[in-house]
Amino acid sequence: IAAGLMGVKNHALYNASKMAVQGFVKAFATDFGDKGITVNGVAPGGIKSDMFAENAWHYIPGGTPDLGKDKIERMMAEHCPLGRCAVPEDVARVVAF
């Protein structure tokens, strides 16, 4: 779940920044829509990366960093529709339409 949709313990500033981006997208869409300008935002959730590997355990109930990267990734993948964690290329294909 994208941090902008769900608060995560000990990540208030990160969550707030993600929620702010969603607010900007909605506000800019309203501000510029009457000028024919569309505004789109992409909030894909966790993307497999070094940052994801180091921080994803926060999103697992009872998770700790001691679980290890591989186990954390497997546990996160169980909650993904693809059955795996997304990779940057998954998002790039959508954004570069």
Automatic annotation (TrEMBL):
<comment type="similarity">
    <text>Belongs to the short-chain dehydrogenases/reductases (SDR) family.</text>
</comment>
<keyword id="KW-0521">NADP</keyword>
<protein>
    <submittedName>
        <fullName>Hydroxynaphtalene reductase homologue</fullName>
    </submittedName>
</protein>
<dbReference type="Pfam" id="PF13561">
    <property type="entry name" value="adh_short_C2"/>
</dbReference>
<keyword id="KW-0560">Oxidoreductase</keyword>
<dbReference type="InterPro" id="IPR020904">
    <property type="entry name" value="Sc_DH/Rdtase_CS"/>
</dbReference>
<dbReference type="GO" id="GO:0016491">
    <property type="term" value="F:oxidoreductase activity"/>
</dbReference>
<dbReference type="InterPro" id="IPR002347">
    <property type="entry name" value="SDR_fam"/>
</dbReference>
<dbReference type="InterPro" id="IPR036291">
    <property type="entry name" value="NAD(P)-bd_dom_sf"/>
</dbReference>
